Amino acid sequence: MSGKVDGSSIRHAVSARLSSEWLPVLLFGALLLVPILAGFFGNERFAASLAARVMILAIGALSLDLILGLGAMVSLGHAAFLGLGGYSCAILMHHGIGEASIALPIALVVCGLFALATGALSLRTEGVNFIMITLAFGQMAYFTMVSLSQYGGDDGIQLGRRSTLFGLPLLENGRAFHLIVWLSLVATYLLVRRIAGSRFGRVLRAARENPVRVAALGFPVLRIRLTAYVIAGIICGFAGFLFANHNAFVSPALMSWQRSGELLVMVILGGLGSLHGAILGAAAYLLVEEWLSGLTEHWKMIFGPFLVLVVLAGRGGLADLLGGARRE
Amino acid sequence: MNTSLLLVQTLNGLQFGILLFLVAAGLTLVFGVMDFINLAHGVQYMLGAYFAVTFYALTGNFAATLLLALLAALAFGLGLEFLVFRHLYARSHLDQVLATFGIILFLNHGVKLAWGAAPLNLPIPTWLQGTIPLSATINYPVYRIAIIVAGLLVALGLYLAVRFTRIGMLVRAGATNAAMVSALGVDIHRLFMIVFGFGTMLAGFAGIMIAPILSVEPGMGDNVLILAFVVIVIGGTGSIRGAFLAALIVGLVDTLGRSFLTDLLRPLLGPSPARQVGPALASMGIYLLMALVLILRPRGLFPAVGRQ
Fold first, then answer.
1. What does DSSP assign to residue B120?
2. If you ran DSSP here, which 8-state letter would residue B125 be given?
3. Is A127 an interface residue toward B (CB < 8 Å)?
4. What digits encode the pLDDT tens for the residues A155-173?
5. What are the tens digits of pLDDT across the range B249-305?
6. Which of B23, B80, B81, B105 to mutate to test the interface with A (most CBs of A within 10 A)?
7. Taking a C-beta distance cutoff of 8 angstroms, is the pair A250, A90 a contact?
8. Which residues pair with residue B130 across a beta bridge?
9. What pTM was computed for the model?
10. How far apart are CA B261 and CA B25, in angstroms?
11. B99 vs A308: CB contact, 8 Å cut-off?
């Protein structure tokens, strides 16, 4: 994994982007210690809940960064996977399967299959059409859940309890749940980072810059993109599974297209293609939301123009990477 | 299922399709000519409806309301173009998505602040109230017929304008190759402004026309926007003709699917599963249609001529 040892020039450029090794470590350390630190000030539940939401959405944002940052696939339907993962968890529990070691693989397969089907269709197009089609498929999933009245329809569905892990109610314990979410985030980060640095990830990036040339070199561009899309869908479904457990509740709102927009915002805020940036972005978005919504119920009236300004000012994200280089 | 109900739902589907066309036409023009993806287009539709409510409260006259609300929608759209959108034309699609998403957040909440979160209503103008008998037992509201007629007139006008006027020629040329049009000495920014203003007005018009039969509420534009995207994907980007036909198809498939699919499935699946599967399948109908079109014709059913 260490970027210095296998030092090809591409790898070096990549690791320059992925680097600031200390920043991710600091970030993970902070996220791990939040509940303990907050415990000193007496609002552990609130801080732990916020931190868990940050980490779960960060997993979703990381998965989006995989296809958006590395593959330049602008998906506006990514929240569908959050919803599918969450609903898989809730529906299976509704039918008596609350065991994570059974429910989670099923949820991931569901998300993978949905990603495979919609990805194979969406990736037949490029650019704006891809954006519109992912949006449309996301809405399709949304309205399907809205119309399934036996699973709560518009109102969503309560879980009743959290998933068990190997028969043990591990996730019911706040600290244990926090630790599991944290480990999930670290594992996801390492996995996505591994993918980004792999041969597969490099081809994906190369196809972002010049798909014709990459295809001419003999790489199956479509299949590579589709593989990335499926991986991202599965990871995001995992985040959805955790989210359902965290809230003990899922509703179609989890997969609304605004939620997909929020995931995009998190990735962009953090800095496109810089993986710890996605985590920073998720943290920043949720903290700003928490802060502004404390000030006024119309906080989105402040956040909207802020977003416009961020785009117009045009530099890339909190991690301040990438940005200008790609925007000819 | 009886024929008069089928007739009513077909008309409803047509009316819905016409509405989608008005929104999609502006979107596809703006996208075709400027390569600009404007998520905030649905907000323009919503604002049209809100302007109509306000001006009706002021004037009490539907014709005056229509005129004033159209002008207000145009002015607002041009204002947004001047302040934000024109800085985005040269940007990546991702930037365009984000910035226009920010505008949606702002305006969806802005209307809550300005008009309140509760749904508002606009009365149907007196001279368009009442119903037309379709058969001995079934009546159909005049106002919905009026929407269909107005939409068809707009479609015809749009067709003539794009086909036979100089601006229309430039729009067609721009949809094929905007850079070349600019190189030939056409003031492309002026053309962009005209196209954008016109698209905004069409969306506003749709919002105004629909306000008397829908509740006017924040976020009402979002769903219409997404359906308009489906229309554009099916019809082929940049193509007005494609948008028109695809909008009618989508309107009909969606409306008829919701009305009759459960009944149609009942003999196949039995009553209880049909009641569960029917609505889910109906709500997926247009997306499945879109998927089918993508498999068979990835560039849409009626792509704009010569578009790369």
1. B
2. P
3. yes
4. 888 887 787 777 777 777 7
5. 999 999 998 888 878 888 877 777 777 777 778 888 888 888 888 888 888 888 766
6. B105
7. yes
8. none
9. 0.85
10. 29
11. yes
